[in-house]
Specification:
By secondary structure, this protein is α/β, with parallel strands linked by helices. The chain folds into 2 domains: about 1-130 and about 285-385, Isopropylmalate Dehydrogenase (3-Layer(aba) Sandwich); about 150-280, Isopropylmalate Dehydrogenase (3-Layer(aba) Sandwich), CATH 3.40.718. Helices cover about 40% and strands about 15% of the residues. The chain contains 13 helices and 12 strands. It has a 10-stranded mixed sheet, sandwiched between helices. A two-stranded antiparallel ribbon has the order 6-7. Helix 2 packs parallel to helix 13 (about 370-385). It is globular, with a radius of gyration of 20 Å. The relative contact order is 0.17.
Length: about 375
């Protein structure tokens, strides 16, 4: 489960400790959180995440200072660009970044407000804060097995994995060129780029069930063969982790056929993009899928779903993923594992009690609204404490 994820990379700890010393956050002060709700349902689900944090804080002797900033279409309306400098500065001054969602209606993507909004905002954040490693858990909650597209006998074996994806290399950041009827996209990796996600993945496997699957295409690609070489070189330093390699086409098949096999998956940028989206279907809703982007001293936490403009303002969006993002933030950026585990347990208890939004509610059961779900998680936190 989420609570079993590993601590952040060792190299980030001194930077965060220095940041807290300079800012006065943490012990004796409030944690500074940059809040970027974004577009569509982003502000609605973000409100519930903030509600849960504000409720949980006093229970654990913690306090938070929330600094809101614009991103995406909301930033374009206010500043004429999707990732303005004022937003970057707000994030820079924070201990962590809570990100909502970016994007507008499909039939308006040609408008300047929405054209390349996600690319400019999300890739801009990754570049600005060296967000090199994406971590996305995929868990099928027993109480929500009805929502999973998997057969009941497959779900019964348990689905609980973490996909670790490299974010700043590979095809997305290589040379792209078209000459007439010929096009080229270059995929490049170096050892340092590969070691960063592998370091986190080995640590995550130690905290979980001890199995690490490196997904590649080493029968074809030199970059994949380099990934294998680096993983094998690192493996002796992690003897408690069972290391295996799997071709990406087989991994895609096994995600559906035998997802219980996987514990921690680590892979390069393009493969990770595809596989993490495929795995996001398994729990039954993107509204259950948090993610973290880690790297330098600033980490970003965002739900895996989109802005869902068709649901905006209807009090029907699922805020679970955004709430679970706060738990990941508490664990990785703020080093508050007990508080993180409590929020995760409260979400799980809420779902187990049948309190669900429309996207995951059991047949014949009346769904709750966005705000009611947040209230229920707060109630579960109080009961447990």
């Amino acid at each position: 489960m989420l609570g079993k994820l590993a601590p952040v990379s060792r190299c980030a700890r001194p930077l965060r400790a220095l940041a807290r010393t300079l800012s006065g956050s943490g012990a004796g002060g409030a944690w500074k959180v940059a809040v970027l709700p974004g577009d569509g349902i982003g502000p609605e689900v973000m409100d519930e995440a903030i509600k849960v944090l504000e409720h949980a804080g006093p229970l654990f002797g913690q306090s938070f200072e929330f600094d809101h900033a614009h991103v995406g279409g909301a930033a374009y309306d206010a500043h004429g660009e999707h990732f303005p400098e004022s937003t970057r500065q707000t994030c820079e001054a924070s201990d962590a970044i809570l990100f909502g969602s970016v994007g507008g209606p499909v039939d308006e993507q040609h408008l300047p407000k929405w054209k390349d909004a996600e690319k400019n905002a999300v890739l801009g954040m990754r570049k600005a804060f060296d967000l090199a490693v994406n971590v996305r858990p995929a868990t099928v909650y027993p109480a929500l097995s009805h929502a999973s597209p998997l057969r009941a006998d497959i779900v019964a074996k348990g689905v609980d994995m973490v996909i670790v994806r490299e974010l700043l290399g590979g095809l997305y950041f290589g040379e792209h060129r078209t000459d007439g009827d010929k096009a080229m996209d270059v995929c490049e990796y170096d050892v340092d780029q590969i070691r960063r996600p592998l370091e986190f993945a080995f640590a995550a496997a130690k905290q979980r069930r001890g199995r690490l699957t490196v997904v590649d295409k080493a029968n074809v690609l030199d970059t994949s063969r380099l990934w294998r070489r680096v993983a094998k070189e690192m493996a002796p330093s992690h003897p408690e982790v069972e290391l295996e390699f799997m071709y990406v086409d087989n991994a895609a098949m096994q995600l559906i056929k035998a997802p219980s096999h996987f514990d921690v998956i680590v892979t390069e940028n393009l493969f990770g993009d595809i596989l993490s989206d495929a795995a996001s279907v398994l729990p039954g809703s993107l509204g259950l899928m948090p993610s973290a982007s880690l790297g330098g001293s600033k980490f970003m936490y965002e739900p895996s779903g989109g802005s869902a403009p068709d649901l905006t303002g209807k009090d029907v969006a699922n805020p679970a993923a955004q709430i679970l993002c706060t738990a990941m933030m508490l664990r990785y950026s703020l080093e508050q594992p007990a508080m993180a585990a409590a929020i995760e347990a409260a979400v799980s208890s809420t779902l187990a009690a049948g309190i669900c939004t429309a996207d995951i509610v059991a047949p014949g059961v009346t769904p709750c609204g966005t705000r009611a779900f947040g209230d229920a998680v707060c109630a579960k936190l109080s009961e447990a404490k």
